[in-house]
Structures are given as structure tokens and as C-alpha cells.
Amino acid sequence: MSRIVVVSNRVADPNKPAAGGLAVAVRECLRRTGGLWFGWSGRIVERTRTDTGHAHASIQASGKIQLATVDLDRQQYETYYGGYSNNVLWPVFHYRLDLAQFDEGFAAGYRQVNQLFAQQLFRLLKPDDVIWVHDYHLIPIAAELRALGCENRIGFFLHIPVPPPLIIAAIPEHEWLMRSLFCYDLVGVQAKSDLTHLVRYMETEARAERPGDGILRAFGRELRVGAFPIGIDVDEFAALADARDSKDMYATMRDEYSRRELIVGVDRLDYSKGLPQRVRAFRALLDRYPENRSRATLIQIAAPSREDVNAYDELRQEMDSLCGAINGDYGELDWMPIRYIRRSVARRRLPGLYRASRVAMVTPLRDGMNLVAKEFLAAQDPGDPGVLVLSRFAGAAEQLTEALHVNPYDIQGIAQAMQRALTMPLDERVSRHAALMDSIRRYDVHWWRATFLDELQRTA
Ligand code: ADQ
């Protein structure tokens, strides 16, 4: 069997609990088959311009998995990662052209780091390796590998949404990115709506032909495309829910909030996650349905990320002020309406928090998938489950049709859905949860890995 080579921006230690969705999924994939995981070490080192191209990846073994990592210097980090990845591709792909900072220096740094990664990786490849590249940081790496003579199968999975064609076309380098995509054998996206946008983009901007279903032809190459919605490891998450840390968390929460209904939100502190809208909706809930005062508590966990990006600083200030105002206006000596915690919660404790909550708010303005929605469901007691309120603009909405769907911009609509969730009868909660569990079990992370890799193996 071919060796699997996973390439992602960051490489995580497979022995430590993984924080993000991508890290969880990749670790799970490599643990089964073994293989090589290549990417940035997360270190920023001092380096002169002249020696950047010659640095070798450092290699470490972790069980059946080999980890190959490359350091970046400050300028590379600021242009490739902070600049092009987080200030161009992330906002544009989340429909936020207003936040994009198109800067030639960012584009140059992005290209240079992708070239550097390709050079380092190429040295480590064997002829029958199957290469699986992840996410927007690395779109051009296949083109760089092909330029070096790499003929391996290369697949690409995009974890974030794909916006409509004219939004992508606003990126000054979009044609170059599109040509780079055609150097892959398979490009996977999360949702059907993403696939529709991607195909339309390639037809209109590259005049791609469609010789068959899921096949695009342009620039003398044939590319397969498909939607592969990412899932979670349901059994692993359920086992976490039954373990000590989670049970302790559950007991603490139930003890602390014995007279309250908990509404929970767990996100990265990111403008795509719809956090201010959610907090405003909670305020509307207290206004419109006053029976929730002294009764409902919103626990919002928001892990800081990309703190050096300006838009994140503004979001942080907005959240501080919104949450402070609600607690000031509505709080009682024995009741704080919002517990806003700007930190991450250890993964092993998360299921306990989810299980103690009556409602989960997953209301991103745009999201590739959103794994928190699936994790919340997996952590519930099937006999007395909580209710998921889900943005119709999360990729997960296509699959999780029995959740309460909301428009994340509609504050009153979200407040109504919160109220409906808080008052939903047990039999309805149970039947919705059972249907949702069927879906996340069927399309779990094992399904995702196997389907993508099978499809990649089938490419010519
Ligand atoms: P993210 O934007 O990071 O991922 P999401 O899928 O919701 O979004 O979360 C990823 C993981 O991080 C989950 O396992 C979650 O439990 C964890 N997490 C998030 N916030 C946390 C917090 N405050 N404390 C502790 N853990 C937290 C990107 C895309 C998504 C896509 C994933 C996977 O933006 O759309 O679902 O990749 O493809």
C-alpha cells in the first residue's frame, strides 16, 4: 500500500491532545496507516535571506508517524502566514472582501514559502507516495512540486468555505491560484454549496470543460472535484465524555448552575463565528422572554487566535463591551447572565461542558463545516439531550437538518430559536438528537478520510 504523506501548515505532536479539527482528523488518519506529516514547526527563527532555501526539514518519529517540520523566519511568517493566509485568503473565502489586505509583499511571501516547502518535501518523497495537502495556506504547493518533477498523486482538501466566483476573482492573484489548483489530481471541499461555487468559478474564469460528473478540464490537465464533509471521531468523543475529566466538569457545572439552564458557545475568537450577533441575540432573549432572567446563563468560551491581526483586536473589544453591558444591565447579585471566557477549554473537559448544557449556539456567519456542532451532539445523553441551534451558513447545516437552523445575522430570529430550544419538549429533543446522531455517525471522520483517499487513489 502507498505511504500517505499529509501536508498542512502546522504539524502537531500526535501524542498530545489535538486542539483543532484539522489536527484531530490528520492525527486520526496517520495513526491508522502510518506515514509522513510535513509542515511548519510553529517556530519562528532568525535567519538571513541567503540561507532560507537550503534549510532541511527536521525529522522526528512518533510511532508509525514521521514528522517533518520546517522553521520560518520572521518575514516569511509575516507575509505567508499573517499576511496572505490570514489577511487575504481567510477573509475572502469567508466572504469578507472588506477585511482583505491585498499586498504584493504578502503574495510574494506566500509563493516563496510554498516553494520552500515544496523543495523540502520533494527530497523526502518516494515514487508511490500519495500526498494529501490541507487548507488554504498551501494552495500552490502542488504546482511547485510538479515544477520540481513530482508525479505523485496529490489531493487537496479545503477546510474553509468557497465563496461565489466573483468574490474569489477579486483576489489579484486568483488566476495563479486557480492554475495551481489544476496541478492537483483531486480537490475536495466541505459542502455541496462550496462545490457549486468552485465549479462555477472554474467554468467562468478558466473556461474549464466538464467531460464528466466531478471532472474539470483546463490548462491541459484533468482535475477531479468533490464535496467531502469532514466529521468527528464519534466514539472517541463519546469515550472522552465518559472519562473522569469530563465527568468532573459535568458535576462542577451542574453543581454551580443547579437552578439554571445553560446555553453554551465554544469557538475560536474569530469574526467568522458570529459572536457579537449571538450575544446581541441573548440580550434580545432576555428582553423578549423575561422568564429567562435569573434562569438562563450563556457560557461563551472564545479561544483567542491570530492576535496580531487587527480585525481580531476589534472583535475582542466589541465582545468585552457587549458582554459587560449585558451583565451590568441585567445581572443580579446571584445571577450573571453571561460567563464570557476568553480562553480555550481542554479538549478532555469539553464533553462535560456540552453535556451540562441545554442548548448549544453554533451561529457562524460562514464556516467551512464547524466541528463544535458535531461534538456537542456526540456528548449528549441520548435520553435527555440538549438542542443544537445552528447557522444555516455553516457547512454542517447541509447535513444536520434536524438542528434548529437560524440566519446568524437575524438577531430576533436567533432569540426566538433560543427560546424554542429552551422550551422544547423531551420527546422532540430525543427524536431530533437521534436523527442527528445517525448523520454524524454515518459521516464521521473515518468516512471522510476513507472516501477522500479512495477517490484520490482512483484518479489516473
Ligand atoms: P475552526 O475554524 O477551528 O476549523 P471548528 O470546526 O469549529 O472551527 O473547530 C475546530 C476544533 O477546535 C473543534 O474540535 C473544537 O472543539 C475546537 N475548539 C474551538 N474553539 C475552542 C475553544 N474555545 N476551546 C477549546 N476547543 C475549541 C476549520 C474551519 C471549520 C472546519 C474545521 C475542520 O474553519 O469550518 O470545520 O477547520 O475542517
Summarize, please.
The chain has 460 residues and is α/β, with parallel strands linked by helices. The protein is built from 16 helices and 16 strands. The strands form two sheets. It has a ten-stranded mixed sheet with strand order 3-4-2-1-5-6-7-10-9-8, with helices on both faces. It has a six-stranded parallel sheet with strand order 13-12-11-14-15-16, sandwiched between helices.
How would you sum up this structure, described in words?
The chain has helices at about 20-35, 75-95, 105-125, 140-145, 165-170, 175-180, 190-205, 235-240, 245-255, 275-290, 310-330, 350-355, 370-380, 410-420, 425-440, 445-460; strands spanning about 5-10, 35-45, 60, 65-75, 130-135, 155, 185-190, 210, 215-220, 220-225, 260-270, 295-305, 340, 360, 385-390, 405. It is about 45% helix and about 20% strand. The model has no long low-confidence stretch (mean pLDDT about 95). A hairpin with a 2-residue loop joins β3 and β4 (about 65-75). It contains 16 helices and 16 strands. The chain starts with a strand and ends with a helix. It has two domains: about 5-230 and about 445-460, 3-Layer(aba) Sandwich (Rossmann fold); about 235-440, Rossmann fold. It is an alpha/beta fold. The strands form two sheets. Strands 3-4-2-1-5-6-7-10-9-8 form a ten-stranded mixed beta sheet, with helices on both faces. Strands 13-12-11-14-15-16 form a six-stranded parallel beta sheet, with helices on both faces.
